[in-house]
Structure to design on (297 residues):
């Protein structure tokens, strides 16, 4: 099987593959690109509603709560103003707005968010790297999820976080859940898919190996008093995790096919084999939750 794949990967496509080595581990080396790549934006992945609802269901089950910051009382009393950046279709917002009908929820996404239609929800289309269209000290709580890998580390640090801190009230909270792209105990087909994804990420100025530490650095650098929680999730133990893995790799299929020379059909076969491997190898990943408070000046 490894040989089949190595052969399939021999041709160079779009100047991205450096096929000096047919070893499964090395076929994806990227040719060095110009340094300007370090600030290139990561292309937006077109999500779909099923994938997003699956992600929401899954994360809620794993973490047991939609938030960890101590905001329950203001959410209940109705004083809370909440923002989610990169809200997607708004499945998190919809759940929160239903649970806390007296508080107000705002979502912003570069794609037009339109799912969470409730009276206490406002959804806006916008690129968060173009500045956030809200006055200083507006929100009590800002949330993001599976978002930071959509933008470069530089943009997160120089453009996004200063804006988040600006629009957050003193004493307000910022919270994010991200998954560590360095998945653990991978079989060969899973590694193939993951390496292609890594190359896409690297090619857009994000270093997957540093991702976990970078988020902590972001909170520290922007003077947020933060805590980190982590869960290790084994795909074999959660049907929803496996479902999410498949929908995720289906969603990004055409994007990461650019980094291989395999056909659509072959990709599907690899994905099927990878699903079997998830159980066989007990493949796992880390889900990391960061929540930090803006200090009162
Ligand atoms: C992986 S999805 C997460 C969606 C949602 N937060 C969730 O957890 O279900 C990342 C979202 O970020 C959005 N996004 C990426 N870059 C963005 C940007 N620069 N400004 C606003 N939204 C962006 C994408 O359109 C996508 O909906």
């Amino acid at each position: 099987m490894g040989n089949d794949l190595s052969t399939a990967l021999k041709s160079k496509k779009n100047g991205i593959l450096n096929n000096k080595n047919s070893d499964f581990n090395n076929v994806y080396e990227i040719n060095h690109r110009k340094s300007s790549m370090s600030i290139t934006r990561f292309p937006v992945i077109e999500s779909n509603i099923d994938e997003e609802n699956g992600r929401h269901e899954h994360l809620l089950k794993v973490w047991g709560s939609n938030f960890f910051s101590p905001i329950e009382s203001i959410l209940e009393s109705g004083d809370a103003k909440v923002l989610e950046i990169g809200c997607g279709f708004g499945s998190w917002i919809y759940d929160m707005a239903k649970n806390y009908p007296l508080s107000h929820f705002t979502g912003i996404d570069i794609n037009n968010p339109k799912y969470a239609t409730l009276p206490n929800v406002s959804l806006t289309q916008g690129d968060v790297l173009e500045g956030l269209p809200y006055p200083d000290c507006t929100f009590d709580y800002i949330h993001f999820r599976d978002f930071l890998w959509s933008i470069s580390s530089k943009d997160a640090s120089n453009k996004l976080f200063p804006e988040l801190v600006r629009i957050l009230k003193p004493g307000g909270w910022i919270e994010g859940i991200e998954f560590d792209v360095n998945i653990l105990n991978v079989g060969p087909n899973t590694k193939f898919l993951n390496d292609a994804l890594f190359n896409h990420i690297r090619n857009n100025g994000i270093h997957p190996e540093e991702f976990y530490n970078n988020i902590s650095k972001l909170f520290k650098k922007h003077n947020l008093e933060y805590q980190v929680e982590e869960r290790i999730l084994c795909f074999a133990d959660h049907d929803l995790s496996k479902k999410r893995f498949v929908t995720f790799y289906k969603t990004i299929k055409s994007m990461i096919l650019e980094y291989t020379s395999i056909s659509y059909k072959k990709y599907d076969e690899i994905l099927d084999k990878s699903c079997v491997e998830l159980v066989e190898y007990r493949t796992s990943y880390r889900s990391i939750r960061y929540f930090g408070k803006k200090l009162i000046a």
Residues 6-43 have pLDDT under 50 and may be disordered. Residues 161 and 279 are 38 Å apart (CA to CA).
